[in-house]
Amino acid sequence: MSAAQHREDQREHLMKVIGWEQEYQPTNIVLASIEPRWGLKIAAADEAALRQEFYKCATQVDQTWFTNPQRFGRAYYRTEFVSFPLMATYLGAIRYIDGSPHGLNWIQVEPDGGAYDPMVSVQRLEDALQDKLAKFAKPDRQAKLAKHKIVENYLLIHGGWNSYVSNSPHHPLTLDEIAKRGAEFYATHPQRNLFNRVWFYDSLDSADDVNALFGLPAGTGRVRWLAQLWPTLRVY
After folding, report:
1. If we measure between CA atoms, which residue out of 194, 190, 163 comes closest to residue 178?
2. In this predicted model, what pLDDT tens digit does every residue of 17-58 receive, in sequence order?
3. What's the sign of the alpha-carbon dihedral 127, 133, 134, 135?
4. What is the dihedral of CA 164, 74, 109, 90, to 10 degrees?
5. Is the distance from CB of 207 to CB of 159 less than 8 angstroms?
């Protein structure tokens, strides 16, 4: 409880230092989730300058939102503050989420549960690809394929319920975006030629018992989706 209270005090102090009502109001950002350097108290002499750096940085991010090459989907996760020394001192990262202005507070300090990371679903796809490449690169596996005279080897990665849960309900990545990142990962892998084709298949069956309760047609929510990741990215 003591550690949690210290973090809550740090959150309150940081929000008091930054404020928001009288400051810059973004037009393309609906949320900035700050990850502070926990346990590091902001010196009183740094408060005003830190606030100025924060809003100068937020202004740059907001005004270059649609041309930012590091933005992925609806999110931009910034961990470097080269031009903002006080932000680099006191803040570990900021996650920006796009959206229309709503007139309410658009800044938060990361809660104890952690910020939702939409890249988790991308990482799981990359992990699955890496796992299969490592297994099929083993000499015994290659010998077995040669013994059976297999000349083409295809890999099918399944998505489904877990990928749906990982992307719900807040600011999901689309399946197209996940597939694009998986295709980029695979295309640069040194062992990519172990498979002639790689497919990413996502399926989600409808919960027709729930649909019936809400008066929805049977099949509502059902997903059947397929993309080829290698040798070319193609979404079907």
Report:
1. 163
2. 998 878 889 999 999 999 999 999 999 999 999 999 999 999
3. positive
4. 130
5. no
